[in-house]
Structure formats: structure tokens, C-alpha cells
Amino acid sequence: xxxxxxxxxxxxxxxxxxxxxxxxxxxxxxxxxxxxxxxxxxxxxxxxxxxxxxxxxxxxxxxxxxxxxxxxxxxxxxxxxxxxxxxxxxxxxxxxxxxxxxxxxxxxxxxxxxxxxxxxxxxxxxxxxxxxxxxxxxxxxxxxxxxxxxxxxxxxxxxxxxxxxxxxxxxxxxxxxxxxxxxxxxxxxxxxxxxxxxxxxxxxxxxxxxxxxxxxxxxxxxxxxxxxxxxxxxxxxxxxxxxxxxxxxxxxxxxxxxxxxxxxxxxxxxxxxxxxxxxxxxxxxxxxxxxxxxxxxxxxxxxxxxxxxxxxxxxxxxxxxxxxxxxxxxxxxxxxxxxxxxxxxxxxxxxxxxxxxxx
Length: 359
Ligand code: AOF
Ligand code: ZN
What we know:
This protein is α/β, with parallel strands linked by helices.
């Protein structure tokens, strides 16, 4: 199963919003073929492995796969049919497919065909591997990761807005890994203006995610780097509904940039839930990385939308600076956002801590 997970990871950046799936075929205690889901809409992992077992009679062999085989006619025929036809005698499965079209049906079909099924092997690892898929297929919302690079005293910038660089090189490299892993990066207008970031994946290999900028009044200057991007079709500017048909919006659309207009929520802020829902339904974005600044971090906390939080803590004290969640004003401890620490390690001279939501 560990090998299946490793194979599945080869699909990062290519298969979303579909799941990461790897498959290993064992015959007479030996691995005879391997496969994985290479790209969105392509062959499923189990079919890839079967196709790679060229000239081998698979009768009586075992299929190891991190996700329950599908039982539906989607872009490809059901994998359960192929598994039965090839006369596998055993299937070892990581997790049930959370897809409402499938959940449990694939396993039932295999059992009814006389195939021995063992499910729940390395379950936690398999669940973690497909945490984006599990979230969006069951909720129709993308999985949300927040990433902040801050000082020991929780500042993401000085009081004058200087933030380059709080964290060290290794932490910035890890951020690039995160960007390569998700479908979209989200930042606020002010961060886009101050940092003028390219938000692209550098230093590590990987494709660029969508760049989403929350700019309610479309006031980001045209000189900003995102507008000269050579992947403009992957830039989405989110604005208030009243700017949907504005001159600025029309100009941006004409320049090849996507505009997403949303209503305000009860606090007169752009409705984050609506934004996330649209990113999923209109752009197939199944995971997002929120990179700041403090306003945006605070809004995500306020709306209870954080699934995972990465904090890079640099060994610096800044004092009266901009605090990562400073606009998240709660006056009772009972209203605090509670998270669970799942890992913490050194990232150069910084600490990289990963938390997940506990609700
Ligand atoms: C994949 N790759 O290796 C497996 C998947 O639209 P389709 O036909 O590609 O089907 C997508 C669904 O198939 C997906 O949501 C998941 O439930 C199931 N299994 N999908 O893309 C795979 N095994
Ligand atoms: Zn399938």
C-alpha cells in the first residue's frame, strides 16, 4: 500500500479534481505490475496497472489500491468490470471511495463476484493523501489550506508592512511545494499590491496553480505582476457584484483575465463561501492555498473555513507589527478557532508546524 501511495503521488498537479490513485498487482508474492492515475479524465490507476501487465495471466492475483475501485460509467468504464474479467482473487483497498456515486458499491460488486476484499489498509495515510478529494466530493467546496510565515510573536509584517523576508529560504521552498500541490493560491488585494508576488512555482518542479486575488473594487494597479502574467487565463480576480459589469471588469476580461463577481455577506465583506463554491463549480478548483494577508486570514478564521494551517515561525521578534489574525476579533475564549497540531519540524532556522481543523 505504501508503494501504491507513492505511485499515486506521481499524479500531483495533473489529476485534480479527481483523486490521486496508485495500484500494484501481486502474483505469487511478487509485484508483477504497477500503475497510477496520470491525468484528469485519463485511465484509472487499476486499468493502468492491468495494461502494464503485458502478457501476464492475472488469474488469482492480488490488486493493491489506495482507493476503492469505481463501479460507475464515468469518463471510463467501471474498473470493477475489468478486475472481475481479469479474474483477480483478492483486492486490498486503502479507503472507500467517498464519491456518492460509488461509496461501498465497488467493494460490494467485487465481493459478490467472489473476490476477497480487505479494506482499510493504511487508512490514515490514504485518507491524508486524498484529503482534497474527500472534502470537495462530499461538500462541493475546495479544501482550504492557510499558510503564514511569521515571527515568534505572531507578526507577518512590521507595522510599515515590510515582510521580505521573515521566513528563511527553506520555508519559502516549502511554500513553493504547497503551491505546486494545490489548484489555486488566494491572496488579498493589499498583499498583491505590497508584495507584488508572481505566485508562481519556483525552485521546485510543478505546474502553476490558479492565482486568485480578492479585490472587491478592482483597484489593483494595472502595473501589478499578475496582469503581465503569461498564464493570464489562470488569474481570477474576485470583486463585488456591483463591479461585475464595470469598465474595469470589461477591460480585464478583454485582456484574458477571469472575473468572478460575488455578493457581500452580512458583514459587508465578500462572501468567502460563495467564492469557494464558485471556484469549485466554475473552475474545478478542489484545493486552495490562502497566502494572506491578515485581513484574509482573519476572514477565513471568522467564517470557519480553515481545513489545514501551515505556520512557519522564524526566530525573530517584531513587536508592534501586523499580526496574522489581527482582524479576527473574538472576546471570548469559547469563540477561538481550535486546531490540532499534526506535525512540527525544523525548516532551516524556522519551525514548520502543520495543524488541521478539529471540527
Ligand atoms: C480517477 N482515477 O484511478 C480512480 C478514480 O470521471 P471519471 O470516469 O474519471 O471517474 C472519476 C471518479 O472515479 C472519481 O471521482 C473517483 O470516484 C473514481 N475513481 N478516479 O480519476 C482513478 N480509481
Ligand atoms: Zn475506476
